[in-house]
Give the backbone structure.
Amino acid sequence: MARPTIYFDKFTPEKEKEILAAYKKGGSTVRAATILGIHCDTLYDWLKQEDKKKFSDTIKYGKCLSQIYDEDLLDEAIKNKDINAIPLMFKMKCKHRKDYGEDKSDVQVTNNYYDVNVPKRLSEEEWKEGVEE
């Protein structure tokens, strides 16, 4: 049996800042676990524990920041006809399934014309309010 990971030794204020900085650049939950030096299974276990609410809120907020980063990339790709937006659309559907899954948005590609229905973009403050609720 593996020894339990000591939460307070791993999730420090410095690590919290590093995790959020990674999410702001499009980082993932796997990257957050790597920053903490823990296995992804440990991270998911911590997310379920009520005594680790600050950690859970940080990860939820970080996921929002990552989605904003990815949305900005997609917006830029759609505006710039020299960039192929299709891989970015696929990334959004896979990485942000809750908002961009098959039942949430429609993507049609016809003769290099991209028609994308995306949910309303929220400001960083609106995301933060949603995480705190």
Observations:
- The domain at 9-116 is CATH 1.10.10 (Arc Repressor Mutant, subunit A).
- Residues 104-114 have pLDDT under 50 and may be disordered.
- The chain is about 60% helix and 5% strand.
- The beta strands are 107-110, 113-116.
